[in-house]
Amino acid sequence: MKKTLFSLILFFLTISNLGAHTSHYKGIKVINMEVFRNENLIGYSNYFFTHGKNSLEVKNYTQFKVKLFNVIVFSVSSEALEKYKNDKLISYNSTTFQNDKEKYVKLKYDELNNNFVIDGSSFKGKTNADAIIGNWWNHKILKVDKQISPISGSVKEQVVTFIGKENIKLYGKNYSLDHYRLVSKDKSLSEDKKLDFDIWVNSKNNLIFKISYNKKGKWEYRLKNFE
């Protein structure tokens, strides 16, 4: 159970590539998301933006706990930092504690070879610079065909499909959002490693408002507020 839950979170924490369109978030300072499992609030994933003249830093803090019969069976505490220069990702670093086990990613952009060099707890190597870090603040997750785990550095190919416009209600407010489906390209992956998400985006401000999936319960990330 614990192993399965962690595998799910690797993809969910909270999915920055070379052309990350960071200018789309020029006025954003904070994005606060709440994490739910089976409609129960279990934690948060919050992003903090620092804008420079030609730079951007995005810090993420994610924490939540899963309880079964009032006993904590799974906990995650994660910190991450993305750095951009001239709208290009130049580095990403994260440290995550899953219960007492540490996971990490150290990523740097190699300008000479135009690729990312990754030192992660589950992958060490290179990948082309059109991949994206799997963080939920960045709508570019829906524009690429490959993502990098923000927890362990593993690289997975994905397929994104536009479902259509939908009206949804969050925190007492109604929104008209674009609904997308994101799944793994590799169908041979085990169920606990597959990407399988529904994602709702506000096309007016490029913010992801909700992410959901169903494995060992119903999981949702919901945009509570932003500044």
Query: Strand order, biggest sheet?
Result: 8-7-6-5-4-3-2-1-15-14-13-12-11-10-9
Q: How big a fraction of the residues is strand?
A: over 45%
C-alpha Rg (nearest Å): 17 Å
Mean pLDDT over the residues: 90
Percentage of residues assigned to helices? under 10%
> Globular, elongated, flat, extended or rod-shaped: what is the shape?
globular
Low-confidence stretches: 10-19
* Major sheet: 15 strands, mixed
Order of helices and strands: HEEEEEEEEEEEEEEE
The number of helical segments is 1
Question: How many beta strands in the DSSP annotation?
Answer: 15
- Structural class estimated from helices and strands: mainly beta
How far the N terminus sits from the C terminus, by CA atoms, comes to 37 Å
Number of domains: 1
Concise account of the structure shown:
This protein is mostly beta strands and 227 residues long.
Describe what this molecule looks like in 3D:
The protein has 227 residues and is mostly beta strands. The chain has one domain (2-226). Helix content is 5%, strand content 61%. The chain is built from 1 helix and 15 strands; from the N terminus they run αβββββββββββββββ. It has a 15-stranded mixed sheet with strand order 8-7-6-5-4-3-2-1-15-14-13-12-11-10-9, covered by helices on one side. A hairpin with a 4-residue loop joins strand 6 and strand 7. The radius of gyration is 17 Å and the shape is globular. It starts with a helix and ends with a strand. Mean pLDDT is 90; it is low at 10-19.
